[in-house]
Amino acid sequence: MKVEEIMTKNVYTLTKEDTVSKAISVMVEKRFHQIPIIENEYCGMVFLKDLIKSRGEPTKTKLENFIVSTPTLKKNMDIYEAIRSLLRAGVRALPVFEGKNIVGILSETDIILSIKRNELKKIKVREVMNNVITLSENEKLKTVLRTMEKNRISSVPLIDWKEELSGCINLFSIARFLYQKKEKIESFKSAKEKENILNNPAKYFSFFPITTTQDTTLDKIVKMFQNGEEVFVVENKRPIGIIKPRDVLEILAPKEKIPIVISGVENWREVLSYFEKISEKWERFGIQKIVIQIERFGTRERYFGKIKVYTKKGLLIASTHAFDLASLIRDLKSKIEKEMIKKKEMEEEKRKKLKMKGE
Hints:
The protein is of the alpha/beta class. It has helices at about 5, 20-30, 50, 80-90, 110-115, 140-150, 170-180, 190-200, 220-225, 245-250, 270-280, 325-355; strands at about 35-40, 40-45, 75, 95-100, 100-105, 135, 155-160, 165-170, 210, 230-235, 240-245, 260-265, 285-295, 300-310, 315-320. It has 3 domains: about 5-115, CBS-domain (Roll); about 120-250, CBS-domain (Roll), CATH 3.10.580; about 260-350, Double Stranded RNA Binding Domain, CATH 3.30.160.100. The strands form 5 sheets. It has a 4-stranded mixed sheet, covered by helices on one side. Helix 5 packs across helix 10. The chain is globular and about 80 Å long.
């Protein structure tokens, strides 16, 4: 499948001279998180999350101050290569070009709604959902804004006094209420008026989001994204997680093999084959590299082995010995998996403590 087969062909672009007010108006109306900027050639994109933080007068502030350089896609590019580009760029959508002309835009949602993968029916939400930061529905809107900026998130679930989900605030709901939805957005009449709005309880600006359970499969979640950009996971009416199109996109991305280095044994291909299959299941631990050292010693066949696993958050090590190679590699697998699980549990406990402290 090629990019041109599923990209959105009607592309809305702006120029450097257009204003923040115009861009926000279009984004709110069309539900765009970003818009390409064209001045004879592609300059980059402007993002809603940056524009709503602007302190300048929206009807006078030009977009040239908010342009972010991004990669571009070609219309004949393979869709899986495009997925890699989107994930590496860390954005929701990228422009598509034919030569120097922009001919479309490809978003995460375009991809996940178009690619049919049977494996999504086997994966449950609990396996890929992210933790959420919740706020009281009575918190001031400016507190919600600060929380979103500090944690680099675009959606916050609100809870009532029972700690049950009562609403959600995201970038669109903020933009919709902070700025008047007109073709040309007007600036606030006064700084005092703006401050009054920001001091109002968050519940006045919220909407009730799409929800699901931990046992829902990802193929059903994909259908939910047709009606919203986030799905909250609830348990006993309380928000416990969130899933977004990017979480599904990461599942669809072509798997790149984790580098495995083996030394000290003649039958290294046997060891490599075993750990290549195992490493596919270890991706959720953020594995980046595996190094295995094996030593044979003594008059009888006896092996000593050490495995080092490099992750995004540090190094894990395990070692063991056995009278045959097959037993050795099984023991190494078992011991290093225990270390991975222990590390993951410690990180989860740390996150819970930070959340309880309100950090």
